[in-house]
Amino acid sequence: MTIVENLQSVKRRIEAAAERAGRNPADISLVAVSKRMPAASLRAAAAGGHLLFGENYLQEAVEKISALPRDFVWHFIGHIQSNKAKIVAGMFDVVETLDRLKIAAALEKHLAPLNRVMPVYLQVNIGREPQKSGVMPDAARKFAADMAPYRHLRLTGLMAMPPYSPDPENTRKYFRQTRELAEKLAAVGLLASDYGLSMGMSGDFEVAIEEGSTLVRVGTAIFGGRK
Ligand SMILES: *Cc1c(COP(=O)(O)O)cnc(C)c1O
User: Fold this and answer.
1) Which regions of 77-213 does DSSP assign to beta strands (E)?
2) Atom of ligand 1 nearest to the CA of 159
3) Cβ(133) – ligand 1 distance below 6 Å
4) Which domain holds residue 185?
5) Is 217 in the pocket of ligand 1 (CB under 6 A)?
6) Is 168 helix (H, G, I), strand (E, B) or coil?
7) Within 13 A of 137's CA, how many CA atoms are on the CB side?
8) Half-sphere exposure of 142 (CA within 13 A, CB side)
9) Which of 165, 199, 194 is nearest to 14 (CA)?
10) What are the pLDDT tens digits along the chain (227 aa)?
11) Which residues, in sequence order, are bridge partners of residue 196?
């Protein structure tokens, strides 16, 4: 299967999952996760009409962003170092992996002179896994409140990666907990009522959509296996 065929198949599966859940498929965005894929693979996706990409590794992303057309849209989904916040602020459209206030402050510092407001997702360590990034669920409310001074960051929603399981049904409860956490933050005005939920990858995006995901991050199901 070609990249464009894979994209079409993933989009059909997104629509079917949305319909099963009584949701509008248009409310779900697909971020094609292109880490470790060459620029040619992204061009192939773009030729099929897909322009939204997610990248994890900054140096690699900078090379691709510089080489590819300006109408591509870029989400950062990796670990941000504070000394690299300027590059992230200047080159990406959305950050999905905010989990430290120090990084929020660094992004704010570089966005303000650009007069840019960047949508950001708070990454939550929904499975409370010691080795994983993300704020603990109990700390999300304080984190969201502490972001208030950063006028150039718009807290758009939550991002979560549940503990890995070969059976996507095992991830359902974590997606649900993420949605419930977002509902709580919205109830106290820390998220807008139309908040987003970035959850779901190649192995579990359909379950994530059934549980309310508005943004799925899919790599291997589109581009094939990474080396
Ligand atoms: C790699 C990655 C994905 C995509 O994973 P696949 O299993 O290839 O779909 C999604 N989100 C994040 C944060 C990733 O690092």
Assistant:
1) 94-98, 118-124, 153-160, 196-198
2) 13
3) no
4) 3-223
5) yes
6) helix
7) 18
8) 7
9) 199
10) 999 999 999 999 999 999 999 999 999 999 999 999 999 999 999 999 999 999 999 999 999 999 999 999 999 999 999 999 999 999 999 999 999 999 999 999 999 999 999 999 999 999 999 999 999 999 999 999 999 999 999 999 999 999 999 999 999 999 999 999 999 999 999 999 999 999 999 999 999 999 999 999 999 999 999 87
11) 157
Q: Look at residues 179, 216, 212 and name the one whose alpha carbon lies nearest to residue 201.
A: 216
d(CA 92, CA 88): 6
Cβ neighbours of residue 40 under 8 Å, at least 6 residues apart? none
Per the structure, how many domains does the chain have?
1
- Ligand 1 proximity of 33 Cβ (cutoff 6 Å): yes
The CATH number assigned to the domain holding 185 equals: 3.20.20.10
Rounded CA separation 175/178 (Å): 5
Exposed, middle or buried, 125 (CB in 10 Å: 0-12/13-18/19+)? buried
Euclidean distance between CA atoms 5 and 81, whole angstroms: 36
**What are phi and psi for residue 91, nearest 5 degrees?**
-115, -20
Can you tell me which atom of ligand 1 is nearest the CA of 203?
Answer: 7
Q: At what angle do helices 39-47 and 3-20 cross, to 10 degrees?
A: 60
Predicted TM-score of the model (pTM):
0.97
Any ligand 1 atom below 6 A from CB of 158: no
